[in-house]
Amino acid sequence: MESLRRVIKAVGELGVDTILALEKRDPQYLSVCRVVSSQGEEIGARLSMLNALVSYRLAGKGEEHWSFFASYFTTPVSHICVDFSRYVRDSPYLRLSLSARLRRVEKICSYSPDLTDLKKTWLEIAERLGTSPRQKTVVFAVKILNYAYMCSRGESRLAPMEVPIPVDYRVAHLTRCAGLTDTPPEVAVKKPEEVQELWSAVASAVGIPPLHLDTLLWLAGRAVLHGENIHQVPESFLNLFANGCRPLSKWR
Fold first, then answer.
1. At 52, phi and psi to the nearest 5?
2. Which candidate, 152, 182, 168, 151, places its Cα nearest to that of 214?
């Protein structure tokens, strides 16, 4: 497929070092670092994991949701389950499906992830939640835990290659814009396997794990779909989406 070859070429030319540098500008990364700095590695990682697991159907932009999270947890936490549940109730970005979010928190708030073995942690999170390891927020939680590791240890580290990309509306939309699929984004987010397999193929070809490609796509999405290249994503990558990308509504 010509579109796939074009995407592989563009990502390969960027290289892993450029993508890791972009991650350091990711608002999610900066928010995780703030929480880890305030709470320490273990508590900060657990809080960040929980926030990833409730990050769906947001009532606002994801960047603003993560900024609110970081600001909320600047003071010491006395009880993770109690304090995080209170945060979920207080957040203006988590108003939808509030009861479902709180039930999810209750299932896993006592779990302490192993930051040194994210593959094991990935499977344990899915098991505790009783869901597929490929589910969007489960794989997103692994990405966020890798951020927590990098923030705490002060070093870059590649996430496991086996963990697929989390398919939200923005990623699904850009995948279609790049000509990789004809599947509408609203369908892809419910049945993400095709989009995950496509980006796993890109990841395998360039040697950069899918979770890092997610950061690249998320930051590119702000530029392509909102006209705001505030993260300075290289134009060579943005050009992949130049044709046929319609703007998203402001909360995507």
1. -60, -40
2. 168
Q: Pick from 246, 220, 217, 247: which is nearest to 231 by CA?
A: 220
Nearest to 84 by CA among 125, 43, 56, 115: 43
**3-state DSSP call for residue 143?**
helix
Residue 215 carries which side chain, given as an amino acid letter?
T
Q: Can you say whether residue 151 is alpha, beta or left, with left for phi > 0 and alpha for psi between -120 and 50 degrees?
A: alpha
Determine the Cα–Cα distance for residues 209 and 187; give it in Å rounded to an integer. Answer: 24
Q: Domains in the chain, ordered, with CATH?
A: 2-25+161-241 (1.10.1670.10), 27-153 (1.10.340.30)
Comparing CA positions, the residue from 66, 45, 65 lying closest to residue 146 is 45
Residue 168 designated active-site: yes
Give tens-digit pLDDT for 39-91. 999 999 999 999 999 999 999 988 899 999 999 999 999 999 999 999 999 99
**Choice among 26, 136, 143, 214 that is catalytic:** 136
Which phi and psi (to 5°) does residue 129 adopt? -85, -10
- Share of residues in the chain with pLDDT > 90 (%): 85
145 against 246, higher pLDDT: 145
Taking alpha carbons only, the member of 242, 249, 201, 229 closest to residue 12 is 201
83: annotated active-site residue = no
Let me know how long the chain is: 252
Report, as an integer, the average pLDDT of 23-27. 93
CA distances from 28 to 33, 93, 177, 201 (A): 9, 15, 24, 25
* Candidate list 26, 143, 168, 214, residue with the active-site label: 168
Q: How far apart are CA 96 and CA 57, in angstroms?
A: 7
